[in-house]
Amino acid sequence: MLLRVDDTGSSTLTRRGAAFFDLDKTILAKSSSLMFAKPFYKGGLIGRADVLRSAYAQFVYLVSGADHDQMEQMRAYMSALCEGWDVEQVKGIVGETLDEIVEPVVYEEALRLIDEHHAAGRDVIIISSSGTEVVEPIGARLGVDRAIGTQIAVDDEGRYTGEILFYAYGEGKADAMRDLAAEHGYDLSASYAYTDSHTDLPMLELVGFPYAVNPDTELRKVAVERSWPIMDFAKPVAMRSRVNTPESRRAA
């Protein structure tokens, strides 16, 4: 919330908008979870068959986008695959390979939008179905204010149990946005949302300014019907040159 003083000297509290971004195919040109298949393989977390399956899933995702059934399959796959993984090992692998994996696939148009929202005084939040151990470092690298991903339970020994506590998908993203609005005083009617998938309609319908970015067929149709702006991002660039800019130094 912001404190505004009018001409009479009296003050009122005003609510400010925020900008909510999906991650995959909105900020990144690929799926953030699937991109780490090879590093996880080298770290001994997954087998060769899982790498091949991830490569195929990446191809399907890039060609057609992910529908509801595919997202539910991904949830089950993620739950079964990561059971028993050491959390600190996962964080270490992501940290060591983040630049190599993510550096070349960030859309320049998305980076520009993030800067514009920060310049306008809005917080920028990433909400992605990828795991939080992947989403949070990427968010920090991008200089966003908050990053929320799927959360998996961890046992007393620091290993994933496979139980998904929060799945950042569909209505779950909208729930997270409502919680953030209540906690930080965001006015959702003055907020923006950007995503590529029709499965994120709850996220788009919650804000005053929804944008379809690289939309799949279903979302493009909805955007046209509702006169939502459509943005086509096509220029992946490296983040490395932005590390020392004021925008990129914002705390995540």
Q: How do you describe this structure in short?
A:
It contains 10 helices and 11 strands. The chain has helices at residues 32-35, 37-42, 48-64, 68-82, 87-102, 108-119, 132-142, 171-184, 201-205, 217-226; strands at residues 2-5, 11-14, 18-21, 106-107, 123-131, 146-154, 160-166, 192-195, 209-213, 230-231, 236-237.
Task: Give the percentage of residues in beta strands.
Answer: 15-25%
Quaternary structure annotation = single chain
Kindly report the spatial arrangement of strands forming the biggest sheet: 7-6-5-3-8-9-10
What is the arithmetic mean of pLDDT?
79
Indicate the overall shape. globular
Please bin the fraction of helical residues: 40-55%
Radius of gyration: 19 Å
Pick out the low-confidence regions: 1-13, 55-64, 243-252
First and last CA, distance? 19 Å
* Biggest sheet record: 7 strands, mixed
Spell out the helices and strands N to C. Answer: EEEHHHHHEHEHEEHEHEHEE
Q: Structural class of the secondary elements?
A: alpha/beta
Number of helices: 10
Give a count of the beta strands, DSSP E runs of length 2 or more: 11
